[in-house]
Design a protein that fits this description.
437 residues, Rossmann fold, GMP Synthetase, Chain A, domain 3, 12 helices, 30% helix
Length: 437
Amino acid sequence: MTPPSSSVSPVMRLGPVLRSLVRAHRLERAGPDRLAAEQRRLLVRLVRHAQAHVPRYRELIAPGTAAAFQGPEDLPALPVLDRTEFHDSAPERLLAEGFTTRNTKAGTTSGSSGVPITIRNSERDLGYLRASYLYDMVASGLRPWDRMAYFRVNPFLRHPLERFGLLRTFHIDTSGTLDEQVEAFLAARPTFLVGFPNVIASVVEELERRGERHRGVHHVLFGGERLTPTARARVLGHLGARFHEVYASVEVFTVARTCRRGALHLRSADVVVELEQEDGTAVLADGSRRVEGEILVTRLHSEAMPLLRYRLGDRVTVGPDTCGCGRRTPVVERVQGRSQDRFRGRDGREFYADFLTYRVQDFPEVARMQLVQERPAQVTVRTVLAPGADASVTGRIRRAVQDAVPDFEVTVRRVEEIAPEPNGKIKIVKVLAGAAD
């Protein structure tokens, strides 16, 4: 990894993207031994690059530790990178030598954790990023002639193939009003959708309210948050589409993607995943057994700003590959949401509240939901019910949640809508300021 001095191109370069696409396709169905060897090779190179060229890692990792590093089993000897430290550090402390804010491109997280951070990528990093996302979409049904609608706040860099009518992209600005989003959607006439599930669901609901039907979409790629089964079925039923899902972030790109059978497989040739336990130890998510914990991700392609053992902020369950689709990587069984979203009980103890959401989404009448804690030992369940739902369902929801947390005060409130956060996402589990007092 020799840092170049040239700046990032203002126009998307296809060469790095195509090279990374070929690699992704080659490794898609590789066997466990080949994937493990590729992962080990890239990880050793990354660790030694970080120690030799990144000021912060020179302080954190001794030269002898980097020289002796042999693979994933040695990761516990390295420090964990927390987003708070990342946010507070000057960019030049985390950038490899030769890279600056002028010859790298910034990507800023949505800030759903409350700590937005900026990642800087080189041209080579960007080639991998674009190829990773493109391969996810191709594997999820994208065709060269599709019209792709991307639901996001910021626009994306145009690519030269659009001049030939290939992979045309249309930006649906999720910071705009619902009416503006719907009008942009109708004007785009998309055939493939990518974005936050709740944003897409809101557009579909508004189309239904208007009596308009758009049947040209054949696939939807959801990512960034969870949608209830009822709401997902409503979106897909209205559009007449199929769906896939990705687990990804600005910092580490794609961590996992669903296969044709719906299993969410880790991208083991691109990331190394560990799951941190309550006692601070970390277990490698290699598929040898089912394990749950706070996810630590090492992105194997990050020359400008290496990320080693990055605490993403989610609590995740990973198990062995049992789906039989042909991909040979561990399966993410559940992403339980931001680890910061902890409810507090009457005795002061905190716990991950995501399990309560499954008590709510099991009711087919629930289209949207949000669990909010305003004070300890209390939870308000906000529900948007599907059309025609019997209002008495709120009582049954309350009893189901109360059974799970019998010492809590449980309120179920029917609402017309659930407001997204400033970043466009809906927090399914939300702890308000003062709830810990």
